[in-house]
What we know:
The chain has one domain (5-291): Spore Coat Polysaccharide Biosynthesis Protein SpsA, Chain A (Alpha-Beta Complex), CATH 3.90.550.10.
Amino acid sequence: MKIRKAVxxxxxxxxxxxxxxxxxxxxxxxxxxxPLIQYVVDEAREAGIEHFIFVTGRNKGVIEDHxxxxxxxxxxxxxxxxxxxxxxxxxxxxxxxxxxxxxxxxPLGLGHAVxxxxxxxxxxxxxxxxxxxxxxxxPGCLKQMIDIANGLDERSxxxxxxxxxxxxxxxxxxxxxxxxxxxxxxxxxIDGMVEKPPRGTSPSNLSITGRYILQPEIxxxxxxxxxxxxxxxxLTDGMIGLAKTQQxxxxxxxxxxxxxxxxxxxxxxxxxxxxxxxxxxDGLRKEMLRYLGQ
Length: 294
């Protein structure tokens, strides 16, 4: 199964981190020294993704600018012999024709956002990556999933899952656990999915997180999908429909997930990623200890 394209839904309003996102897209909030969207694009590139598809909304033009060349900045850096900065910007720059942008005109949910990318994806399997969920690990979460997908039936679908407290399962999309894959210990067949199950009815404590590999047949289902939880077109509901004819696998990925769409998760991610940087680790630890009075 060759996965060449990834869809990044970036049209959300980021209401959980207001007022920071009143005028700035949440995807451009920085973790250490780069925006959220850069981390997930880098993760997708590491996994072998060749085409990056962004589903945007109003006031999101700065995301497109971030992945474009900035002549004035490049010339300024050259004139000041900032070779390190020039190399770093070039390393993060997608090649010509590798990015596409389309609009979700109404906030109708994740399922609708994915459906908006149907013409750009075409008739091939693709990844969906949620930018406000970071997974700190190498290799990244998406590469782990694609490595497993390469050994599965070509019509298979995969979702990343992680454990959550049973008393909180009503807040997540939850999957049922089927049989373990014989050669991939972290993968299992999914025995049913439910979006935000009522308390006490959850089939497991494994929540569906922000990484998916889906077959193009999902678009036909999403096209007529009724609104679900929150009055939105839910991607999980569409996957439930697709699971009637295609196999779904859950992947218990290795890595530390950070929900950067919440204020505590955003702050935690900054600390975790900062401590992973050799050039920042000692200074950050010293500042934290000084703040704590130690």
